Amino acid sequence: MNHRDMFYAFFRVGMLGFGGGPAAIPIVEKEIVEKYKQMEQKEFGDMLAIANTLPGPIATKLAGYIGYRLLGTAGMINALIASVFPTVLLMILLLVTLSSFRDYAWVEGMTRGVMPVVTVLLGVLTWGFFAKSKQDLGWLYALILLGGSVLVIQGFGLHPAVLIAALILFVFMKRERPKAGEAG
Amino acid sequence: MIYWEIFLAFFIPGIIGYGGGPATIPLIEHEVVHRYEWMATSEFAEVLAIGNSLPGPIATKMAGYIGFQEAGVLGAGIALFATIAPSLILMIILLSVLMKFKESPKVKLLSQIVRPTIAVLLGAMTYRFAETSVVDSGWAHSLFLVIISYWLIEKRKLHPAWVIGGSLIYGGIFLS
Q1: How many domains is chain A partitioned into structurally?
Q2: TM segments (chain A) (predicted)?
Q3: Model confidence over B25-59: pLDDT tens digits?
Q4: Residue A73, domain member (yes or no)
């Protein structure tokens, strides 16, 4: 795989991935594993699992790592630019155009019209996070964490980052209970 | 200093947002709307809507645009760097270490335990968006648009980009 292939592969990943980074994962797999055959299915799966253990956007972790692994630092930068730059540029062009018309009443109307749709999209996303919490942690722990978060963030006005950092710290400090039947 | 603030505003969501780009949105909103007050809630919602109707990762689109709006091309570059670099550097440096722990229950617990908090932040943001919509457009229009867009996106499985486009036209005509 050369730099040109790398650029086109991640350019397609960026431009075809509607629905944010997580929606782009199958496209990355198609390009890297199926089309260019640069990674085995198993290696891709391992890499994805590791990317998921770290915070932050998933698409850039994948693009950056694959670029680095296949073509070194230059490959990393190439893959990142290809997957991020075109859509950021589109975004800036669209919004700058829109805000140059801001004084017109109909542009303000457009902002108002789109608000309920974003509310729905976020509401659905919220429910997804909630349902997954319940599934992983069970009702009791999910509700305790949910209620605790509401109290601490909305009630005491603590910065959410502090709460999340505390939770991460808690997991690291927690003593791992030895499981029966687990060797070594 | 604006560049340092831009770096922090995107560095923090990038380093604690478990669950990919969408999970970082309420954290970005917290920094951009509430902490640094670069945007009002309605403007943030508009940027998010446009972002959702375009392809590509959402976190970098938000970072790129907001950074650009606050401090030009350099601002966009800094915001993108702060979003991308920390988790990517961790991944490249720690790959062999992480490989050993990827099945560890602790590592799995990490994203599980953060998820309810992200859900609360998303829920609070959803509420603020709904509230702003009712204040700006009234109950009738807001409720109508919420119901019809929920039906189209969730029941008819129509792509959100179409619904966002339609709502822009609706707003331009009926809400101006």
Answers
A1: 1
A2: 6-28, 80-101, 113-133, 139-172
A3: 999 999 999 999 999 998 999 999 989 888 888 99
A4: yes
